[in-house]
Amino acid sequence: MPLSAAVPARVLTVAGSDSGGGAGIQADLKTMLALGVHGMSVLTAVTAQNSLGVQDAWELPVEAVRAQYRSVVDDIGVQAVKTGMLASAALVETVAELLAGTAAPVVVDPVGISKHGDPLLAAEALDSVRTKLLPVATVATPNLDEVTQLTGVSVTDETGMRHAATEVLAFGPRWVVVKGGHLPGEPVDLLTDGTEEHWLRAPRHGNRHTHGTGCTLASAIACGLALGQDVPTAARGAKTYVTGAITAGFPLGAGIGPVDHGWRTRTG
User: What are the two backbone dihedrals, phi and then psi, of residue 18, each rounded to the nearest 5 degrees?
Assistant: First the structure.
């Protein structure tokens, strides 16, 4: 389907719902709107979640996930796909199969643990992420906890980030962004394809309201790819966007509030 000037680029998120609105499908769609693309969704799981954590979660049946995906892709089409919470091995393998048959770049956020430390991926699904999902990824965006889950590598410095990136690339993604925001000092992410290295740095802001950063970064990269950017350009733009969103993060409830996906419209 050819694009006209009136039709924005289309990005599909395949992820779980965050009832508190800070992460998951909600964060993805807010990011897509903010960055000028048309966001669409395949819901994989429902969580009861707020600023204090994830109280419960229910995954959708494989048939429901497959039907949503085919409904969107076969009729509307996509310029990029982003994955988030996939919950189980069956869902990981189903989504990987669907992605393998879709001619669009894929950003895989290998969600394993929530901001509050709650598990969002069954332990037995990790091997499916390694062998099925990561090989179809254009870009994988693990944080340091997810790196350890996937590779066993514990990262404590930038040299460790480079080693971790090599280990993740061995599973098959074309590029990886190892997110180093949990390290002390200036927040830095490493983007590499094993040949090129791009160190994405930003000032650290003393704002604890950072719920949704991982979902937001991965979605922003997918938006850039859908708009025709190469991976380094998309990643740099995503880093700038999520840094602004973190800076403007606001308190909600009694725990960790969300980043502000609409920060550009509120800062003039």
Answer: -115, 110
pLDDT of residue 2: 55
Reported confidence tier of residue 204, pLDDT bands at 50, 70, 90: confident
Q: How many CA atoms lie within 13 A of 96 on its CB side?
A: 23
Tokens 């969107």 correspond to what residue?
72
**Ramachandran quadrant class, 24 (left: phi over 0; alpha: psi -120 to 50; beta: rest):** left
Q: How far is CA 158 from CA 104, 185, 198, in A?
A: 31, 11, 12
Q: Is the pLDDT of residue 4 over 70?
A: no
β partners of residue 119: 113
How many other CB atoms sit within 10 Å of the CB of residue 79? 21
Distances 210 to 13, 55, 234, 247 between C-alpha atoms, Å: 20, 19, 21, 9
pLDDT at position 116 is 66
3-state helix, strand, coil in the chain (%, to 5): 40, 20, 40
**Residue 44: HSE in the Cβ half-sphere, 13 Å Cα cutoff:** 25
Q: Which positions are catalytic?
A: 179, 210, 212-215
Q: How far is Cα 20 from Cα 71, in angstroms, rounded to an integer? A: 27
